[in-house]
Amino acid sequence: MNLVSLTMLVILLAFGVVGLCMARKIRNGDSFYVMEEKAPTLFLVCGICMSYISAVTMSSGPGVCYENGPFLLLTTAQPGAWFGMLVAILFIGRKMKAIGCYTMPDYFAKRFSDNNVTCLALIIMVTVMEIYGIGQLVSIGTVLSEATGFSYGWIILIFTLAIMFFCVPGGTWGIMMTDTLMFVVVLVTAFVVCPVVIYTLYPEAVQALPEAFWSVQGIHDMSTGYRISQMILWCTFFAGSPVIITRVFPAKNDFAVFKATVISVALIALISFLLYFTAGLMQGVEPGIVPQERVIFQAFRNHAPLFLGLIGVAGILTAAISTASVLFCLAGFSISRDLHGLLNQEKAEDLNNLKRARIAQVFAIGIGGAVAYLQPSNSFDLSIFACGIFAASWLPTILMGLLWRRYNSTAAFYGMLSGALMLTILQVLMAVQEVTLPWNINPYIFSMVISILVSVTLTLRKPADPEDARRHYLIRNAQLSDLVIREARTVPNALPRLFKGYHQAKRVMMGGVISVAGLLLLLCILFYSFIPSG
Asked: How far apart are CA 266 and CA 255, in angstroms?
C-alpha cells in the first residue's frame, strides 16, 4: 500500500466517522432534509464552495486548461458559472426557501399543482442527479486507480461505501459537516500547494509554452462566438443546478444567505484561478499527459514536496466525493419525499419518515455506484450532459413560473419534456455523427430555445387560469426577508439584533466584493509578468 492509497483510506475513514456521528443530530424529517433551517454562514460557505469545486473543477477543467491554456476557461466558462450561481442562490434559491421548499420538485408542486408536472420534474431530478453523481465517481476511479494501486472497480466500491456513511445516517447534517471539513483541505490545496507548484515550475514552463497559450482564444484560437456561447452555457448550467439552489434551503436566515454568497463566489474565483493556472503551466514541463484529467494530480505528485503533494491529492479526492455525495443525497431526498408524496397523497403527514428517507439514500447511492462500476463515459461528458438537461428543461420552466403570471402547467410539462428530449436526441445523433446543427449552434442552447418556444406557445394558446395567477401571486410575494422579521419579533431586543445582522451582512458583502476584485487584479498583474513578451 503506497502513500496515496493510505491517504485516501485515512481521509475516507475520518470523514465517514464524522458523517456517522451526525446521526445523533437527526430527530425528525426537518433535521434530516434541511437541518431544521439552522445552517450558519460558515456551513453555507463551505457547502456552496464544495458543490462548485467538484471533479470538473479539479480534473476535467484543469485538463481543458492544460490543452488550451488557462485564460480560455477563466474568461468564458468561469465568469458565466459565477453569475449563474448568483442567480441560483439569490433569486431562485431564496424564493424557493421562502415558500417552504425542501426539495426542488416541491417548487413544481406548489407553483403548478399538477401531478404530471411534479412527476416529470421528479424523473428529471433523480435521473440527472444520478448521471451527474456517476460522472464524479468515474472521475475518482480514473484519477486514483493507477496512483493508489487499487483497481478501478475497487475504487468505485470504496467510495460508494464512504458516500453512504456521509448521506445515510445524518442526511443534510452529515453532508454539511463533512463539506466544512473537506473545504479546509481544498483551501490548503489551492492557497498553499498550488503556489508551491507554480514557483517550482517557473520559469522552465513559461519558456517552453507558445505565446498563444496565454491568449483568451487559447492555443487553438477559439472564435469569439464560441467563447460567448461557453459563457452563456455555464451561466445557465449553474443557474438551474439543484446542487447550488438547494444549498439555500438549510440556511439560518436571509442574512446568512447573502453573506455566504459573496464569500463563496469570491473564494471560488480565487481557487479556480490558482488551479487552472497551475494546470496550464504543466503543459510546459510535462506535455502529453493522458488522460488529461490527471494533470493536477501529476502536478501535486511530481512538483510539490511529498507532504504537500499528499494534501493536494486529498484535495482532489475530497472535491469529487463531496459533490458526488450531495448529488446522490438530493436524488435520495426526491425518492423518499417527492415520489412518496405522489404515490401517497392522502398520507401527506407521513412524508418525513426517517426510515424511508435512509432507505432511499442507500438505493440512490447503490444504483450510482453500480453504474459507475461499468465506466459508461468520461466524467466531463457526463457532467456537462447532466448540467445541460437542467439548463434546457428546468431553468426556463422555473424562471417563467416565477416571472410570468399566466404560465400554466400544460406549458410547463411540455416545455420541460421538449427541452430534455431534444437535448438527448441531439446528443445521440451528434455522437454517431448523423447530424450537424446549422451555424454550429450548441445543442444545449438549441434545446433551451425549443423549450422556451414550446412553453410560450402553449401558454398563449390556453386561456389564463385564475388558479395559476393566484399561485403565482403567493410565490411572488413570499419573501425570505419576511421570515427574518417574523423571527426577530419572537426574541428580546429584536430591533437591535435585526439592524446588527443587516449591517454585518452589508459589511461582509462590500468587503467581499472589494477584496476579490483587489486580489484578482493583484494575481493578474503578478501572472502577467510570466507571459513572454513579443
From this structure: 17
